[in-house]
C-alpha cells in the first residue's frame, strides 16, 4: 500500500464521517443559496443569503451595499442646487418625487414657498412619477411570478408617462426640474391635452393588468397569505407606502400632513387593505395608480395662472437650521433631514429612503417560506436598489 | 419513411434507412423551427405590442438561423467542478428522447416510421427519458440553482406522468387499442351517436381527458404556468443555467421539438391525427383511404399540431407560474382523482354502449 | 475675479424674525408629555411652531426614551441616524492643491436642542394617529461612542443602527448583529464622519480653479467678460 | 381549485393585444430605420455657442461632477466704435465636456449668463471607448445646429423673469 497523501486522507475521513452520519440518521444537510448580487429578481445588485432546507428557507438576510454611492457624504460637498441633481438618482424610477421633499426642506429653512402654479405642477409631476414608477412595478410583478407579458405592457404604457415627463422637464429619468422657490420652467403648450389622453391609456393599462394578473387564480394562489406583515410589526419596522397601508394602517403623507403641494385640491382616496399579505400590497399599489391618474386628471384642469418661480437670490444660501420634510413617494415615505449651517451647501443630509425601511423587515419576513416565495415577497415589498443603498 | 414503398419505389435497405433518418430529422426540426418562429418570436411579440425580430430575412424569418449561427460560434464553457461527461451527455439525452418519441407518430395511412401495437405506451415511456437528462443536467452543473431546477423537474415528472397516462387510458379504452394508427382510425371512422359528419374526435367525447392531457403536456414541456424547473426569475433558468453555446442550443431545440411532438401526439389522441372524417370521402377503413392522404395527412397533422401548440404557448405567455408545492397538490389532489373518475366513466359507458 | 459674488444680500433670511411668535400648543404638549414621562432625562427641547419638535435626552436614558416614546403612542419608527457636528476640515474639495491648505474653522456648533458632544444620534418617531413626529437627539461621548440599542424597542432600528455604526463609528450596546451594513467588513474608517475625506474630491483638482490667463503684457485682470 | 373566469380573462387580454398589434401596428419603432423625435426640451447633449462664451468659468464651477474644463486667455479686440479704445476680451482656448461624467442635470446651461450653452435633443453620440466621450468645443459647436427653439408655454404661464 502506498501512503495516502494528507489530502486524500482527509477526504477519506470526511467521506467516512459523511457515510456514518447518513447511516445514523437520514438528516438532510442545509444549503446556503446566494440570491444575487446578480439575479433577475433583485432589481440590481441586492444579495440575499438564504439558508435552505430543501426549498424551505431557514433564515434569509439581505446583504446590501453593492451599490452604495454615499449620497449622504456627497451632499456635503455640493451646493443646494447641485444636490437636486444628485437625489433624483436615489429612486431612479420616480426621480421627480425624490427632488420634491429635498426642495421643500430647503424652502422650509429659507422660509419661502413656491407660487401656487409651481405647487400645482409639482404635484402633477410628482403623481406622474408615481404612475411611471408603480406601473413598472405592476409589470415587473408579473415577471417575478413567471408571467412575461405584463412587463411589456408596463413598459409600453410607462413610455407615455415618461414622454410627458420628458416633454415638461427635458429629462426622462432624471428631471432635475424642481428648484428652490419653484420650478425651472413652465409647461410647454399642448402638454395638458396630451396628459389627458395618457391618463386614459393608463387607466386601461390598470384594467388590463387587473384582468391579466390580479384576477388570475394562479397569481392569487401565489400571493395570498404569503409574507403577511401584521400592523404592529409594520409600524415598528417603519414600513411605509403601500406596504404599510396593505397592513391596515391608514396613513398617507399626502393627506396626513400639510405641505405646500396641491394634493388637497383634488378629490381622491387612500386605499388600505387588511390582509397584509403580498396580494394586498400589490393590490393597494394598483389602486394607487388609479388614484394618481384621477389626481392628475383633476389637477391639470385647475392649474392656476401665474409665475412658476418665486424670487430667490442667484446664489442660494440656506439659513442655519434643521428641517425634516417627508413625502409619500412611490415607494413610500421619503424624507430628508437637512441640517444647514448657513452655507452654500447642506451641512448634513440624512436621506430616509422608503426601501431601506421596507427591506429591513425581510429577515423577519423570509423565515420559513419557500424559495419562490422569496421572490414573491421581494417583488411585493417593492424596493429599488438605489433607494436601499443610496 | 415508409412512404417510399407506398410510392412504389423500390429502394435498397440503406437508402430507405437514410430516408428515414432524414425524415426523422425533418419531423423533429421542422416543427421545432416553425414553433420557435411563429410562436416564440412572433406571437409572443404581438401579444406584447411589439414586432419581434424583423431584421434577419423578410419579417425576421431567418432569425432562427442567425441565432443558431450565434450559438454555434460560442465557446463551449462548462463549470470547473461540473461532472463533465454527464454534463455533456445531458442535452443529448433530452434531444434523443424527442427523436425516440417521433418514431411512433403516424403521419398518414402508410406514412410512419414504425407502427407497433403498444405505440402510445412506448411514447409515454420514452417521453420520460428527457426528464432524466434534465435531472442529470441539474446535478452535473455543480450549481445550486441548477440542482434545485433539476430536482423540481424530477418532482414535476412524477406528478404529471401519472395524470397524463390516466388521461390517455380513457382514449385507449374508447379506441380499444394502444396503436396510434388504430386510434386515428377509430376517431375518423367513428361516429357520435350515429352521426359521422365529424367522425368521433375524442376531444368531444373525451373532453375531460383532453383537458387533463393538455395540462399534463404543459407541465411535461415545462411551459408556464408549470415552468418551475426553468423559472428565470427564481432559479435563473434552472438546469440550463450553466449551459451555453451549442449545448444550450440542443436543450433549446429539444424543448421546442418536444413541444411539437407532444402536440402531434395530442392531436393524434384527441383531434383525429392526420385524418379527416372518413365519411367525407366515403372511406370505411385504413385500406380504403386514398394514397394522396400520405401527402396531405402530414399537412393536416401539422396544422392540428400548430393549433395545439398555439394553445400551449398562449397559456405560457399569459399566466404566472405556480409554486412547486402547489403544482404537486394540484396534480395529486385534483388531476389524478378526476382522471381516475374519467377512466371509470369511460369504462362504464364503453360497456353500456 | 471673485469665485462667488458674496455681496448679495439675502432678502429672505430675515423674514422669520419679523413674524409674530406663534405658540404651538400641540407640539408643546408633546414636550410636556415626554418631560413628565422621562423626568430629568430630558436635557433640552426645541419646538418650531407648526413644524416639528426636537427633544434631547441624556445619554444613559436613550433606551428609556425610546420606550417612553412607544408608550406615548409614537409607535411608528421613522429613522435613526447620527450627526457629526464638527465642520469638515476639507471643505468642498475645491482648494488649489498647489497652495497650502486653507485654515478652516472647525468649531463645533450643535443644532436644535443643543448638545455637548461632537456626535449626536438622531431618531424620529411618529404618532400615526395625530400625525405628530418627534426628533429625539442624544449626545454620544467623544472618547467612547457607545449608546444603548433600540432594537428591543423598535425592531426596525436594527438596520439603521448598523448603518450608523459603520458610518459614524457609534457602538450600539445590545445590538444583536453589529455588522457593517454597506461597507466591506475590513473597511477602515467611518465615512460620514467629517474628518473622513471624500477622496473623489481630493484626487482630482477642481476644474473651476483655473482662471482666464491674463494678457501677456500684464494689465488689469480684475474683470472678465464685457 | 381554480375558477375559470380569471384564467380566461387573462387569455383574453393577451389575445386582444395580439389582435391590436396585428391590426393597428406595434407600439415599438424599428430604431435604425425609423426614429422617434424627442421632445423639444429633451436634454440630449449640451451644445456650445462659442461666440457667446466669455470663459467666465461659471458653468465649470457650478458643475456638480466637475466635468467641464475651460481654458482661456485675454487678448485685445478692435474697438466697437471707431476711435474707441481697444477692448480686452476673453478668448476661449479650450471648452471640453466629459460626457462620461456628465449627469445631464442642466445646471451649466441654466447658470450661463451669456447664452452660450444650450440643450440639444441630439442623442446619437455614443462612443465605443469611454475616453472618446470627452468632446471639445468644435464638436460642441456642431451640435448648435440641432438646438431647437424654446417651445410655447401652456396657457396661464408667466414668462417674466425667465431667460
User: Largest beta sheet of chain D, briefly?
Assistant: 3 strands, antiparallel
The helix count of chain C comes to: 4
Give, in spatial order, the strands making up the sheet with the most strands of chain D.
Answer: 2-3-5
- Report the C-alpha radius of gyration of chain C, rounded: 23 Å
CATH architecture of the domain at 45-92 and 107-201 in chain C: 2-Layer Sandwich
Q: Give the overall form of chain C.
A: globular
Enumerate the spans of chain C where pLDDT stays under 50 for 5 or more consecutive residues. Answer: 1-19, 219-226
CATH class label of the domain at 45-92 and 107-201 in chain C: Alpha Beta
Overall strand count of chain C: 7
Please give the CATH architecture of the domain at 45-146 in chain D: 2-Layer Sandwich
What is this structure, in a nutshell?
The complex is a heterotetramer of chains A (390), B (353), C (226) and D (163). Chain B has helices at 3-6, 13-47, 63-73, 84-102, 119-127, 129-140, 144-175, 180-189, 202-205, 207-220, 232-235, 245-270, 293-318, 324-352. By secondary structure, chain B is mainly α.
Detailed description of the structure:
The complex is a heterotetramer of chains A (about 400), B (about 350), C (about 230) and D (about 160). Chain A has one domain: Cytochrome-c3 Hydrogenase, chain B (Orthogonal Bundle). Chain A contains 16 helices and 8 strands. Chain A has helices at about 5-25, 70-75, 80-85, 95-110, 115-145, 150-170, 190-215, 215-225, 230-235, 240-245, 255, 280-300, 355-360, 360-365, 370-380, 385-390; strands at about 30-35, 45-55, 55-65, 180, 180-185, 320-330, 330-340, 350. In chain A, helix 5 packs antiparallel against helix 15 and helix 7 (about 190-215) runs antiparallel to helix 12. Chain B has about 350 residues and is mostly helical. Chain B has 14 helices and no strands. The model of chain B has no long low-confidence stretch (mean pLDDT about 85). Chain C is of the alpha/beta class and about 230 residues long. Chain C has a domain at about 45-90 and about 105-200: Beta Polymerase, domain 2, CATH 3.30.460.80. The two termini of chain C are about 15 Å apart. Residues about 1-20 and about 220-225 of chain C have low confidence and may be disordered. Chain D has a domain at about 45-145: Alpha-Beta Plaits. Chain D is built from 4 helices and 5 strands, in the order H-E-H-E-E-H-E-E-H. A 3-stranded antiparallel beta sheet of chain D has the order 2-3-5. In chain D, strands 1-4 form a two-stranded antiparallel ribbon. With about 160 residues, chain D is α+β, with helices and mostly antiparallel strands. Chains in contact: A-B, A-C, A-D, B-D, C-D. Chains A and C meet through helix 2, helix 9, strand 6, strand 7 and strand 8 of A and strand 3 and helix 4 of C.
Amino acid at each position: 500500500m502506498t501512503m495516502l497523501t494528507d489530502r486524500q486522507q482527509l477526504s477519506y475521513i470526511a467521506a467516512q464521517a459523511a457515510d456514518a452520519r447518513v447511516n445514523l440518521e437520514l438528516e438532510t444537510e442545509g444549503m446556503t443559496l446566494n440570491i444575487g448580487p446578480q439575479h433577475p429578481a433583485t432589481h440590481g445588485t441586492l444579495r440575499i443569503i438564504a439558508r435552505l432546507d430543501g426549498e424551505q428557507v431557514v433564515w434569509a438576510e439581505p446583504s446590501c451595499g453593492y451599490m452604495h454611492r454615499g449620497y449622504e457624504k456627497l451632499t456635503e460637498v455640493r451646493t443646494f442646487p447641485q444636490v437636486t441633481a444628485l437625489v433624483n438618482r436615489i429612486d431612479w424610477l420616480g426621480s421627480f418625487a425624490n427632488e420634491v421633499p429635498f426642495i421643500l426642506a430647503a424652502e422650509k429653512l429659507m422660509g419661502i414657498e413656491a407660487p401656487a402654479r409651481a405647487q400645482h405642477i409639482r404635484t402633477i409631476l410628482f403623481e406622474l412619477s408615481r404612475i411611471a414608477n408603480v406601473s413598472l412595478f405592476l409589470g415587473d410583478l408579473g415577471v417575478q411570478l413567471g408571467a412575461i407579458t405584463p412587463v411589456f405592457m408596463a413598459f409600453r404604457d410607462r413610455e407615455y408617462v415618461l414622454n410627458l415627463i420628458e416633454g415638461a422637464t427635458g429629462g426622462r429619468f432624471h428631471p432635475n426640474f424642481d428648484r428652490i422657490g419653484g420650478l425651472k420652467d413652465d409647461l410647454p403648450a399642448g402638454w395638458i391635452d396630451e396628459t389627458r389622453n395618457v391618463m386614459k391609456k393608463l387607466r386601461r393599462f390598470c384594467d388590463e393588468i387587473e384582468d391579466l394578473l390580479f384576477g388570475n387564480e394562479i397569481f392569487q394562489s401565489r400571493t395570498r397569505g404569503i409574507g403577511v406583515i401584521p400592523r404592529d410589526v409594520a409600524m415598528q419596522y417603519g414600513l411605509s407606502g403601500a406596504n404599510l397601508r396593505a397592513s391596515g394602517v391608514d396613513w398617507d403623507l399626502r393627506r396626513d400632513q400639510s405641505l405646500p403641494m396641491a394634493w388637497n385640491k383634488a378629490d381622491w382616496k387612500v386605499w388600505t387593505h387588511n390582509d397584509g399579505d403580498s396580494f394586498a400590497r400589490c393590490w393597494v399599489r394598483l389602486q394607487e395608480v388609479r388614484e394618481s391618474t384621477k389626481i392628475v386628471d383633476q389637477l391639470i384642469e385647475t392649474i392656476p395662472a401665474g409665475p412658476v418661480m418665486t424670487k430667490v437670490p442667484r446664489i442660494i444660501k440656506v439659513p442655519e437650521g434643521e428641517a425634516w420634510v417627508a413625502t409619500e413617494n412611490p415607494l413610500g415615505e421619503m424624507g430628508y433631514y437637512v441640517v444647514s449651517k448657513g452655507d452654500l451647501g447642506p451641512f448634513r443630509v440624512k436621506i430616509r429612503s422608503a426601501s431601506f425601511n421596507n427591506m429591513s423587515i425581510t429577515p423577519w419576513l423570509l423565515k420559513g417560506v419557500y424559495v419562490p416565495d422569496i421572490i414573491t415577497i421581494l417583488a411585493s415589498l417593492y424596493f429599488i436598489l438605489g433607494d436601499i443603498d443610496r | 419513411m415508409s412512404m417510399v414503398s407506398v410510392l412504389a419505389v423500390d429502394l435498397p435497405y440503406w437508402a430507405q434507412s437514410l430516408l428515414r433518418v432524414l425524415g426523422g430529422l425533418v419531423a423533429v426540426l421542422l416543427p421545432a423551427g416553425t414553433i420557435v418562429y411563429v410562436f416564440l418570436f412572433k406571437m409572443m411579440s404581438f401579444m406584447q405590442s411589439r414586432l419581434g425580430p424583423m431584421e434577419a430575412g423578410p419579417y425576421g424569418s431567418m432569425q432562427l438561423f442567425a441565432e443558431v449561427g450565434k450559438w454555434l460560434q460560442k465557446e463551449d464553457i462548462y463549470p470547473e467542478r461540473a461532472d463533465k461527461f454527464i454534463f455533456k451527455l445531458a442535452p443529448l439525452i433530452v434531444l434523443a428522447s424527442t427523436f425516440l418519441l417521433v418514431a411512433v407518430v403516424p403521419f398518414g395511412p402508410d406514412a410512419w416510421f414504425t407502427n407497433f401495437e403498444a405505440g402510445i405506451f412506448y411514447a409515454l415511456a420514452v417521453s420520460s427519458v428527457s426528464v432524466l437528462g434534465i435531472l442529470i443536467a441539474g446535478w452535473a452543473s455543480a450549481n445550486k440553482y441548477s440542482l434545485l431546477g433539476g430536482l423540481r423537474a424530477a418532482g414535476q415528472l412524477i406528478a404529471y406522468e401519472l395524470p397524463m397516462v390516466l388521461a390517455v387510458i380513457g382514449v385507449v379504452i374508447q379506441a380499444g387499442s394502444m396503436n396510434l394508427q388504430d386510434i386515428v382510425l377509430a376517431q375518423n371512422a367513428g361516429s357520435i351517436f350515429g352521426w359521422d359528419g365529424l367522425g368521433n374526435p375524442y376531444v368531444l367525447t373525451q373532453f375531460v381527458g383532453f383537458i387533463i392531457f393538455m395540462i399534463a403536456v404543459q407541465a411535461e414541456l415545462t411551459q408556464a404556468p408549470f415552468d418551475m424547473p426553468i423559472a428565470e426569475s427564481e432559479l435563473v433558468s434552472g438546469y440550463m443555467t450553466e449551459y451555453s453555446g451549442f449545448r444550450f442550443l440542443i436543450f433549446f431545440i429539444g424543448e421546442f421539438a418536444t413541444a411539437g411532438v407532444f402536440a402531434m401526439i395530442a392531436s393524434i389522441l384527441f383531434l383525429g391525427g392526420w385524418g379527416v372524417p372518413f365519411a367525407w370521402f366515403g372511406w370505411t377503413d385504413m385500406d380504403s383511404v386514398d394514397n394522396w392522404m400520405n401527402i396531405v395527412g402530414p399537412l393536416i397533422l401539422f396544422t392540428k399540431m400548430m393549433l395545439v401548440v398555439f394553445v400551449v404557448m398562449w397559456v405560457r405567455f399569459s399566466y404566472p407560474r405556480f409554486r412547486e408545492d402547489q403544482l404537486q397538490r394540484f396534480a395529486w389532489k385534483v388531476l389524478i382523482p378526476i382522471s381516475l373518475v374519467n377512466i371509470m366513466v369511460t369504462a362504464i359507458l364503453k360497456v353500456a354502449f | 475675479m471673485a469665485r462667488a459674488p458674496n455681496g448679495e444680500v439675502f432678502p429672505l433670511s430675515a423674514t422669520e424674525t419679523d413674524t409674530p411668535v406663534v405658540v404651538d400648543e400641540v407640539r408643546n404638549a408633546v414636550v410636556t408629555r415626554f418631560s413628565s414621562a422621562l423626568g430629568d432625562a430630558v436635557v433640552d427641547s426645541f419646538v418650531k411652531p407648526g413644524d416639528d419638535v426636537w427633544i434631547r435626552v441624556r445619554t444613559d436614558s436613550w433606551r428609556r426614551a425610546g420606550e417612553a416614546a412607544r408608550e406615548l403612542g409614537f409607535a411608528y419608527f421613522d429613522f435613526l441616524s447620527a450627526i457629526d457636528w464638527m465642520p469638515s476640515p476639507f471643505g468642498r474639495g475645491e482648494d488649489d492643491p498647489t497652495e497650502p491648505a486653507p485654515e478652516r474653522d472647525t468649531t463645533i456648533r450643535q443644532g436644535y436642542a443643543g448638545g455637548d458632544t461632537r456626535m449626536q444620534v438622531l431618531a424620529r418617531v411618529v404618532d400615526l394617529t395625530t400625525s405628530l413626529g418627534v426628533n429625539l437627539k442624544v449626545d454620544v461621548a467623544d472618547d467612547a461612542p457607545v449608546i444603548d440599542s433600540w432594537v428591543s424597542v423598535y425592531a426596525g432600528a436594527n438596520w439603521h443602527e448598523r448603518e450608523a455604526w459603520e458610518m459614524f463609528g457609534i457602538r450600539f450596546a445590545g445590538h444583536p448583529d453589529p455588522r457593517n451594513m454597506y461597507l466591506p467588513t475590513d473597511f477602515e474608517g467611518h465615512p460620514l464622519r467629517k474628518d473622513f475625506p471624500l477622496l473623489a474630491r481630493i484626487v482630482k483638482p477642481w476644474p473651476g480653479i483655473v482662471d482666464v490667463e491674463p494678457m501677456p503684457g500684464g494689465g488689469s485682470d480684475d474683470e472678465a467678460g464685457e | 381549485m381554480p375558477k375559470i373566469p380569471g384564467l380566461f380573462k387573462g387569455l383574453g387580454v393577451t389575445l386582444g393585444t395580439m389582435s391590436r398589434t396585428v391590426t393597428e401596428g406595434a407600439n415599438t419603432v424599428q430604431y435604425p430605420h425609423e426614429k422617434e423625435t424627442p421632445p423639444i426640451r429633451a436634454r440630449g447633449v449640451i451644445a456650445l455657442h462659442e461666440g457667446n462664451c466669455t470663459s467666465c468659468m461659471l458653468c465649470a464651477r457650478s458643475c456638480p461632477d466637475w466635468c467641464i474644463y475651460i481654458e482661456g486667455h485675454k487678448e485685445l479686440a478692435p474697438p466697437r466704435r471707431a476711435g474707441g479704445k481697444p477692448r480686452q476680451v476673453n478668448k476661449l482656448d479650450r471648452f471640453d465636456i466629459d460626457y462620461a461624467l456628465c449627469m445631464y442635470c442642466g445646471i451649466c446651461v441654466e447658470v450661463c449668463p451669456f447664452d452660450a450653452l444650450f440643450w440639444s435633443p441630439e442623442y446619437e453620440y455614443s462612443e465605443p471607448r469611454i475616453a472618446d466621450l470627452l468632446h471639445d468645443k468644435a464638436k460642441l459647436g456642431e451640435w448648435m445646429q440641432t438646438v431647437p427653439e424654446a417651445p410655447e408655454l401652456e396657457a396661464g404661464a408667466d414668462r417674466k423673469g425667465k431667460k
